[in-house]
Amino acid sequence: MTERVLATVLFTDIVGSTQRLSEMGDQRWGALLERHHEVVRTELARHGGREVSTTGDGFVAVFDTPAPAIRCALTIRSALGPLGIDVRAGLHTGEIERSGEQIGGIAVHTAARVAALGGSGEILISRTVRDLVSGGGFHVIDLGERKLKGVPDRWRVFKVHGDEVSSSAHSSVALPAGLWSRVRSRPWLAATATALILSLIILSLSFISREREGVRADEARNAATAPTGRDVAQASIAVLPFDNMSADEENEYFADGLAEEILNALANVPGLKVAARTSSFSFKDKDADIPTIADALGVRTVLEGSVRKSGDRVRITAQLVNAEDGLHLWSETYDRELDDIFVVQEEIARAIVEALEVRLATGAALVERPTGSQEAYEEYLRGRFLWNQRTPESLQAAVGHFERAVALDPKFALAWAGLADAHLTLPWYLTEADWDALLKSGREAAERALAIDPDLAQAHIALGLYHASKFEWAAADEEFQQGLRLDPRYSTGHYWYAYTIGPQGRLDEAIEHARIAAELDPLSLINVRGYGWILMWAGRYEEALTLADRVRELDPNFAANWQLYARIYAVQGRWLEAAEAFVRSAELRGWNPAAIRGATAAMERHAREGQPVPIPTDLEMAVPRNMLQAEIIAMMGQPDSAMAIVQRMYDEGDPNLREAGIEPLLAPLHGDPRFVALLERIGLAPVPAARAWMKDR
What we know:
Blueprint lengths: L2 E12 L2 H30 L3 E6 L2 E6 L2 H15 L6 E13 L2 E3 L1 H11 L6 E4 H6 L6 E9 L6 E8 L30 H31 L13 E4 L3 E2 L7 H16 L5 E2 L2 H5 L8 H8 L3 E10 L2 E10 L5 E10 L3 H16 L17 H14 L4 H17 L4 H13 L9 H18 L4 H13 L3 H14 L4 H11 L5 H14 L4 H13 L3 H14 L4 H13 L3 H15 L3 H17 L9 H4 L3 H9 L4 H14 L20 H9 L16
Parallel strand pairs: 4-6, 9-11, 9-12, 10-12
Antiparallel strand pairs: 1-3, 1-4, 2-3, 4-5, 6-8, 7-8, 12-13, 13-14
Helix pairs in contact: 1-2, 5-8, 5-19, 6-9, 6-10, 10-11, 10-12, 11-12, 12-13, 12-14, 13-14, 14-15, 14-16, 15-16, 16-17, 16-18, 17-18, 18-19, 18-20, 19-20, 20-21, 21-22, 24-25
């Protein structure tokens, strides 16, 4: 029988136990661990705590009230200090589910997450505990609000200070680089009893998730989309964005960048499946538990962690979790100077590989030191953080950070590749610019990167995008293929290549590369929407709508997805739905919704009457982009005005012109000799699939 009772839950575990085990050997470590258990059990009994479970070096206990639980944690820390054992602890008070000796419920999960935030020698408590013991003589320090993974809302966390042990006395964990070759996986701080109670919840969530995924998989198979129902590889991992625990919120770029670099290192391990960055990072700041995340990403293990950066020092806590049972396969805390951050990345990556028992190539380095300048590296991380946001403002800001990175270290190839990406991506997000200058800067940056590292896949892909933007198709093809040979799992490369060969009429190849991009990064809004866009180019409208629906489930406020809906509805003659999609996109982009509604009405009138419709005077307020203006005007039966815009794009060197021959709303121009001649000048021709819809109108 299960009952709900109010209790205080205490989690404790040993910090740096993996290192101690490696240094001491099994026998000596076993004796020390036995002594640790004696101390903890003695103090639990003395303070009225009831042991629930122990796994490895972690204990879970419950108390009737919080004050004795705090005193117990303090005395455990004090008693273990002389033995050279560093512990951390976390406490939370709330209703737990109790069935015999087993416990579960959100309060248990919350206590575990509070404990996970702690460093060596730290005792952390939730605000609930702090409020209940207020006036009890405990000295606490407010650490501010924190996001506890899998727990709703943000929680204020406090650190308990006591005289028994100075928490600063155990702040450094030194881990030799060769340590991980001797490490083997072990469970960490997993409450077996809690897992039994929570397993029903996890199984229910997993069943619901798989049921939903099964429905989407059926739709995806019919639409030739990336599969969502799949066998999960035994050696597979997702790296979640690390929590920024620093006082300065701007250090979020560093936490994200660290996680991304560890992800990139793991992606180079043969036999290890690694979920793509965009998909993993889509769970940032979302209330999703580990099993749900793992099921969505198709992996068995998940790496999560936190970063606390202060001046020239950083504390990194990382945990590798088995998604099936929630048990920790490995966990460690690193206190380091920032000048050896690459060593920490290498150690974390190798520890994960060892925990997963994936074979490494002899002597292979997982993390290459890309620069000798920590300051340049931080500028690079800031640039990538902003580039991934993909707005005109963030891309322009990213350029500045990449430029500072290469100024600090001119031999920093990755930063040059980042600078190329930023310059070459901007044309897709700006309404007008000096296109030649942007493209030239992007090409020069990509070439600088390749001069330093000829095998840098990102730089080859960037150079391919440059050539495509200059309508140099053979050169673009060569660079894209070279980049994808070097890194076949680079989803952005597949996505950009699909957008390059599709307008050339190579639609089967474009669909395949778009499918691969979406499969590699299935939660990337850009990739999945891009896959749908290319299916639209091929005239496969219902399949494209299936993908648009998937993107809308992920983010209903993704403006580019509403543009996909709008175009498909327009060519299908579903004008009411087209108008609503155009208006929704305009609202999200900051355009004039009333003006875009009027423009849609004008397109509908032309489709109904077959006569040219006057161009609304406020069209530029509705649509500030050249290509979309030309599309709308063409759909109003005004070919001369539409051609004037297309000609202007050609004269200005607008790289977006490469899609003119395949966009379905420009199909009314396909029979215009001026349009055909202009496309010939850039090595293209109207693609028949783009005008197939006109046969039914």
